[in-house]
Amino acid sequence: MKRFELLLFVIVLTINVSNAQNPILQKKDSGFIYAADPAAEVFNDKVYVYTSRDVSNATSFSTMQDYAVLESSDLKTWINHGGLY
Asked: pTM here?
C-alpha cells in the first residue's frame, strides 16, 4: 500500500509541476506579455519586478522589445506599468 501511495504522490507531483503557471503573468489575463529574466526589488513596501519583454513569436534574443515593470504590494495583485525604453 505504501508503494501505491508513493507512486500516486509522484504522479500527482509530476502533473502539477508540468502544468505550472507563472503566478504573475497568465495568458488568459488582458495585457499578457512574454517576460523573461526577472529582477525584483522592494521599495516602500512594494515589490517591483523588472523583466525583459519578448514578442509572441520570438526566435532569438534579438526579438526582445523592451523592459516591463510589474508592481505588487501583496504578491497576489499585480500592476503592469508597461514598457521602459
From this structure: 0.65
